[in-house]
């Protein structure tokens, strides 16, 4: 069960290498061939001379042999070796190594036999020149011109196409050699009978599973939905880091619904050849429609779906945009009830083109995160299914030791553990094997940063607790709903908030929001006495919010009611700023002052509630995940805006509680 799956990024890197080697071999061969031709020609090139010179040479008796090509009116001369010195300067001072040494051309009226016989007659017996008459059939020239070069060209094309098919395709449809097949999508069709994956194989991922159940239901009995006139989503986007089981989940949907499963990677669409991507998309959907109902799974959709650039002329990848446009057209093209459901996976939903997310396309986003403690335990269970593990094995212990591991990493651990135990000729796999496997996986992991040590875990717990506590205590900050220690994207821990659908932000709301953003950093300062790099993402957002307040929303008294927001987008990459240097300085100062004020305010809040804050951090460290209820137990109810009289009362109550 525990199949060791190569990590995707590494796999792709290898593919690229195959591709490059193929190309470079072709180049080397061609360049070598050209160089060889040039040198060869230079060395073999006889010097051209006039008929008059030939006559003088003849008379001086230096010529050993003349070969005359009758139908070409061309003759070549070989000089007697002992006479070669005389002609050195014609060859740039060197005695030529190859014969023939000279070449001459004559007019069509030239009577070769006559001329040579009369010339030879005037020479003494031993000086006579050997005359060879011949007709050139030019076979080789023709072969070279008409067959060899075109052949070389065709070979090159075939080679190139094959190279990049082998290099890039996941499994390739038929006709790998055929260059005319480039535009064919090689979406891998997994046969109905082959998708054996069901939800049972997918551990954890409760939220995600719940969301896709509906898709399964639709695929099973579409009439139930269409009878009521309901529209089924055409596509869903699975968002999450690599190895978290996005492909697995998509397969499980197909498996549960018992429908065919097409899978293709976004990078397959983006090729060097113009128009290939778009035609592959067309082809893929044509195939899918034939087999409907079915699931089309597009892995790494960000390869095609990245937001289209503003300045098209400048952008380097129009090809990708064409492909994306085709994808959008196809998704709009098939009816909601055609039974084709497109699932796509990415770990960067933020860079995708907004058009992809519009209604009727990937209008659903399903977030798949790295598994938490309990989920990890379940994933271990799934992958230990076929393994011989020692009795009363401590799953909980393993789960605790693999914070930050993805599902794929855990599958790897189980496999490694089995191999380690086998190497030692053990009857069953024990805890030590698993621990060794964990060490090995961590060692081989590219993103070592994702694995958290105990020390880091503490620091992250404090950071996240800082966010949580500050947002809990500030009336306008988004209410918290979940905090985890599990790394997510490039941020380490994460606090999830339920954003209130705010179109209009009051200044105080923005300030509260920014305070909770900076809360993590401030918490680190309070507990560790020094900051860490963990707050980079928070500070980035804080900075852009602060600049937005000053530059766009006119919320700084000193700068005044000016907005430099570029809503037309016309300014683009214009380097001149619509304000003076002095204003720029003033704005920078205002932003710094604002951030400083927010920092100090947050600092006071956290110091004042230090006890509660430390309790939240400790709970987080112990459970890896806490919810709003847990925070409420420690800090009391969430602080609400003061306008709400009822809440004010509660606030006072809570203040008493914490000061006790
Ligand atoms: P992604 O597509 O998100 O990169 P995959 O679906 O390819 O990840 O997952 C790779 C492997 O990791 C799967 O084949 C499976 O063995 C294992 N795996 C990942 N997540 C889970 C999970 N939740 N439950 C069980 N196995 C998982
Ligand atoms: Zn943070």
Task: Describe this protein's structure.
It is a single chain. Helix content is 50%, strand content 10%. It has 660 residues and is α/β, with parallel strands linked by helices. The strands form 3 sheets. The protein has a 6-stranded mixed sheet with strand order 6-8-9-10-7-11. Strands 1-4-3-2-5 form a 5-stranded mixed sheet, with helices on one face. The longest helix has 37 residues. The chain is elongated. The two termini are 55 Å apart. The chain binds adenosine-5'-diphosphate and zinc ion (ZN). The site of zinc ion (ZN) has 5 residues, from helix 16.
Task: Offer a concise description of the structure.
50% of the residues lie in helices and 10% in strands.
Tell the overall outline. Answer: elongated
User: Approximately how much beta-strand content do the residues carry?
Assistant: 5-15%
Give the uncertain stretches in residue-range form. 1-20, 164-180, 311-315, 645-660
Radius of gyration: 39 Å
Coarse structural class: alpha/beta
Q: Ends: how far apart?
A: 55 Å
Please summarize the sheet with the most strands.
Answer: 6 strands, mixed
Helical content class: 40-55%
Mean of residue pLDDT? 78
Total DSSP E strands:
14
- How many DSSP H or I helices? 22
Query: Biggest sheet: strands side by side, in what order?
Result: 6-8-9-10-7-11
Bound molecules: adenosine-5'-diphosphate, zinc ion
Can you give keywords for this protein?
alpha/beta; single chain; six-stranded mixed sheet; binds adenosine-5'-diphosphate; 660 residues; binds zinc ion; elongated
